[in-house]
Amino acid sequence: MPSSIKSSSAPSLRANSTLRAMRKTALYSVVGLGLVVSGCSSTSSSSSYAGATVGTAAVNQSEARQNVKEARRNVVSAKADLKKLERKIARAERRLKRKRLSEKRREALEAELKSNTGEIRGAKRAIRRAERRLARAERREDRADRSLAKAQQRKAEAARRFAEQERRRQQEDARAELELDQDQPRSRFGLFRSSDPALENVRDYEARIDNAFPVVAVPIEKMDKRFLRQEVRYRTSHKPGTIVVDTGARHLYLVQPGGKAIRYGIGVGKAGFAWSGSAHIGWKQQWPKWTPPEEMIQRRPELRKWSADNGGMQGGPSNPLGARALYLMKDGKDTLYRLHGTPQWNSIGTAASSGCIRLINQDVIDLYKRVPQGTKVVVI
């Protein structure tokens, strides 16, 4: 073969080889994806990837239990038939022992006794068959129970992996937002005078990661400066360390020594749901679980999925209680009211909650660190 032909065909052969390899890889990818999909959604208990789904396994378990019940009934029925035949034989034997018995009647009883004796053997075989069927049904029931347990375990593991992936995605989004926020010019700080007490905490409203959960940045340029955290002069008869919630002014004050207080902007309860009085912080929780009370579920039936019976809503960025919750107790009882966080910064300064006092997530994190359990809370 001429060298010119060899040199011109070699690249073509290599290209064809590469194309075949790419096609083979694509085919394997499609087949692999098909196996994954069939494993995740298979309705067959013999799936080679992940077995039956929880729904299919539950159906198989139900059928297996029904089969066991039926097999047990068959065993009971076969044993009852045997006892019936045994009673007939005993009755025939008693009648044959009578002295006054005609020859014809005796022959009839002997024939009946012989027939029942033959049926006894058949009844015993029927019992053995029924017991074998019952044993097989019970083994199938055990396999169905194990299959359901494995399916439930796989489902829980898949849910855990999904939650972990969602948490990582939220973290990545928060980091990206944090990097974007850090890259932006600080011209918005020009909204504050150098002597403005709100300026001291402005940077604290940027995005962050808190306990593996993202806390989004607050657009402080869109907020009323009165509702940003700041130290102010505050005259009160309450001791330092007391929390005073002024629902009318939409402010929460953490009383400090020397006639001062740290002031936070808050959102308060809607008309008809507002609460006032004195209580204390019974316990505190980071990224708390939310369980809507039954009264709220009656008003909003769509919240039933987060009821106490259903385990509530786990903590996270979408949880209505936000990054922290301080639970208010009075006379040893839960008041069902909380000081809690919210990512809805635009609800601060309004009457938007169902009676609880909400703060920006960054503010409730700050308050959580400053106050211990047992702190007195006065709502006016």
Protein architecture, described:
- The protein has 380 residues and is an alpha+beta fold.
- Helices cover 47% and strands 17% of the residues.
- It is built from five helices and 13 strands.
- Strands 3-6-5-4-13-8-9-10-12 form a nine-stranded mixed β-sheet, covered by helices on one side. A two-stranded antiparallel sheet has the order 1-2. A two-stranded parallel ribbon has the order 7-11.
- Helix 2 packs antiparallel against helix 3.
- The N terminus is likely disordered.
Uncertain residue segments? 1-50, 185-189
Outline the biggest β-sheet. 9 strands, mixed
- Radius of gyration, CA atoms, in whole angstroms: 39 Å
Beta-strand content: 15-25%
- Can you tell me the overall shape? elongated
Task: Please give the alpha-carbon distance between the first and last residues.
Answer: 100 Å
User: How many DSSP E strands?
Assistant: 13
Question: Which series of helices and strands comes N to C?
Answer: HHHEEEEEEEEHEEEEHE
List the strand order in the largest sheet. 3-6-5-4-13-8-9-10-12
Give me the number of helical elements: 5
Descriptive key words:
alpha+beta, 5 helices, 9-stranded mixed β-sheet, elongated, two-stranded antiparallel sheet, 380 residues
Brief overview:
The protein has 380 residues and is an alpha+beta fold. The protein has five helices and 13 strands.
